[in-house]
Amino acid sequence: MASSSKASRAGVPPVPNLAFRRLRGHRSPGEFATAVRRAAREIGEQVSCDARYIGRVESGEIRCPNYAYERVFLHMFPGLALTDLGFTAREQVRGRGARNRAGSGPDRPTGGPGDPAGPNHHPCCPFPMGSGADSDEESDVLRRAFMTSGSATVAAASLGLGPGSVPGRPRVGESEVRAVEEAVRRIRLLDDRHGADGLYRQAAKPLRAAYALLDAGTTARRSTEERLHTGAGELAISVGWLAHDSGRFEDARSHYAEALATARVAGDPGLEAHAFCNTSFLARDAGRPREAVRTAQAGQRAARQVASPRLLSLLALREAGGWAGLGDRASCEQSLARAHAYFARGASGADPEWMSFFAEPELEALQAQCWSALGEWSRAARHAERAATLQDRRFTRNLALYRAELAADLARAGAPDEAAVAGEQVLDLLGEVRSSRIESMLADTAKVLLPHSRTPAVASFLHRRTTPHPA
Predict the structure, then answer these.
(1) Which of 351, 418, 428 shows the shortest CA–CA distance to 396?
(2) Chain-wide mean pLDDT for the chain?
(3) Distance CA 191, CA 397 (A)
(4) What Rg, from alpha-carbon coordinates, does the chain have?
């Protein structure tokens, strides 16, 4: 069931979005919805757009789209901002000022889970994780599902799975599965923009709710049950990545193992390949390069059933990272050659949705990490610079990561001034990004640059790095 807009709930009649209607042109709402879904696939998003959604936008019921739709619309109409499309600025819809303008009263509580000043708010997040703050656009199910603490009983009740349907055994259907799938997309989008720190604890709540649904059992169709297993597994990987990127390696290992077990139970080779891919990455970061090689190879065996060259390319890069950690240059180069060959085959319809991040910038960045591990700093810096140059600025977290890698490689390659400049570019992004991994990389770079602290560029970087940045 789609939710009504805040304007409607507050008794304020919606204002028709004439700008969006003009952009639709001669196409019917259904035809335009098809174009939206096609544009989403082009950038790795998945939106369930239909004629009814377009009607809600044009009527003004949806004042501001959620982040997935925002990316799609801006892709469809390059050069235009949300306000050019007839939407209200997000801060006016979501912020305290918007709430005050709409009025307050007994039916408008403040300080609760959905309040930006409330307990679920984190300054890294454009909306409170776990509160379903995008409920204007999409689904009441999302709002109900992930406001909860995550216990099986509360999760079931919050998903509308109360005892009135099937006593003692809540029924899981399409709405609940879509809620889990949307939670995965939401977490990934937030991580792209803001990094892992501050998201991990909140993201654990929908994960517990998803596994509570699996534990409760289902009387839904087998296809729905399979989607629930896949969604829960992907959610475990997403939460595991947040733990991984924020330095909680044991937590990450546990989440990845949970995802792998779910994949095996469900017989889902795509999920299995994803779990092995992330486990390999974690093993490399945790200083277990041989495990990184073995798990990447296991992931490739599973991925051969998926028919996605890009997935095989990424797993070959993971294997290359493990070989580099072992100091085996020949095996690393062989894996890199396979990765390039697979990548050159291009994208395909079989590419998993989670791989939207894997484009040429990531290919370059993972090569940089390999050459860095082998001690070839100048070569690593060339790849890291290319990764940072190619990266779409909307993926703020990856942009910061690539520049941090560049700073580290330049520092060790004997280019302290250039390293300091790259380091300051990372610091410029830390107001938006919170990642322990990136901050740790900067700390290591600072140690390498200390002997050069008398040069102005290095001195500026070192001073800024030790000055607390605003939250």
Answers:
(1) 428
(2) 78
(3) 7
(4) 23
Tell whether 160 is covered by a domain. Answer: yes
* Calculated CA dihedral for residues 72, 73, 77, 82, nearest 10 degrees: -140
Convert the pLDDT of each residue in 383-409 to its tens digit: 999 999 998 877 788 899 999 999 999
The alpha carbon of 330 is separated from its chain's Cα centroid by a whole number of angstroms, namely: 34
Encoded amino acid at 411, one letter? A
CB neighbour list of residue 214: distance below 8 Å, 6 or more residues apart: 228, 229, 232, 262
| Residues 49 and 148 placed together within one structural domain of the fold | no
230-251 tens-digit pLDDT: 888 999 998 898 888 888 899 8
**Tally of domains within the chain:** 3
Residue 334 pLDDT class (50, 70, 90 cuts): very high
Q: Are residues 389 and 463 located together in one domain of the fold?
A: yes
CA-based angle 225:279:429, to the nearest 5? 100
Q: Which of 235, 267, 299 is the last residue of a domain?
A: 267
By residue range, what is the domain housing residue 423? 367-471
- Beta-strand ranges (E) seen in 184-301 are none
Mean pLDDT throughout 219-238? 81
pTM score: 0.63
Q: Which 3 state secondary structure label does DSSP give 65?
A: coil
Q: How confident is the model at residue 5 (pLDDT cuts 50, 70, 90)?
A: very low
CA distance linking residue 112 with residue 119, whole number of Å:
7
- 148 and 241 belong to one structural domain: yes
Beta bridge partners of 105: 108
